[in-house]
Design goal:
This protein is mostly helical. The protein contains nine helices and two strands, in the order H-H-H-H-E-E-H-H-H-H-H. The longest helix has 14 residues.
Length: 193
């Protein structure tokens, strides 16, 4: 993560976190990534290295490394190997048994998570506003709502502080409508998954 200190704020926002080059770079346990890959192999109609890399949000080389580990453990088999990195896999009986146990413990089947350390670092970088929200940008973000100027000023302060806001009130008073429009007043990109 030290490479990000020489980049400008705009460069950091445009590229997002750096992709891992090795499994250890993910900061996530190798076993968890292998289990997650096994779940994705089971879910895909044609599990290829490219399809799994896309679903895991990992580089193809790392995805292939994980799939080879699953192959060596006899959880999956190689169906077709046309070229390096475009291998098609299939589940084996032992893999289905392991999958049943895995899903009973953890049903997560999304992308490979980032480590808390990397997430915290990138969020700290993003928490420093490049351009503070002006009253004009706040008004533009909330243009379709009828709100008093005092609330718009408070929202502007919250937006510029990049801190949490607790919205409370009766149902139907517009809490969700306000929350959905806050990002519209922020300059730059917000990383999310």
């Amino acid at each position: 993560m030290s490479q990000t200190t020489i980049l400008t704020r705009l460069e950091i926002e445009s590229m997002g976190p750096p992709p891992p080059e090795e499994l250890a770079d993910t900061g996530i346990g190798e076993g968890f990534i292998c289990e997650l890959a096994l779940k994705h192999v089971a879910m895909l109609p044609e599990p290829t290295t490219a399809a799994l890399a896309e679903r895991l949000h990992l580089p193809r080389t790392l995805t292939e490394e994980v799939l080879q580990k699953l192959y060596r453990e006899k959880l999956i088999e190689v169906r077709v190997q046309t070229a390096v990195g475009s291998t098609r896999y299939a589940m084996l009986d032992h893999g289905w048994d392991r999958l049943t146990r895995l899903l009973s413990v953890c049903g997560y089947t999304g992308p490979a998570p980032v480590s808390l350390r990397d997430y915290s670092h990138m969020m700290r970088l993003q928490s420093i506003p490049t351009d503070p929200a002006s009253m004009e940008t706040v008004r533009a973000a909330f243009h379709d709502l009828v709100l008093p100027d005092s609330l718009l000023q408070t929202l502007g302060c919250v937006i510029n502080s990049r801190r949490s806001l607790f919205l409370t009130g009766l149902p139907g008073t517009g809490k969700t409508a306000v929350a959905e429009r806050i990002n519209g007043a922020l300059a730059g990109a917000i990383w999310k998954q």
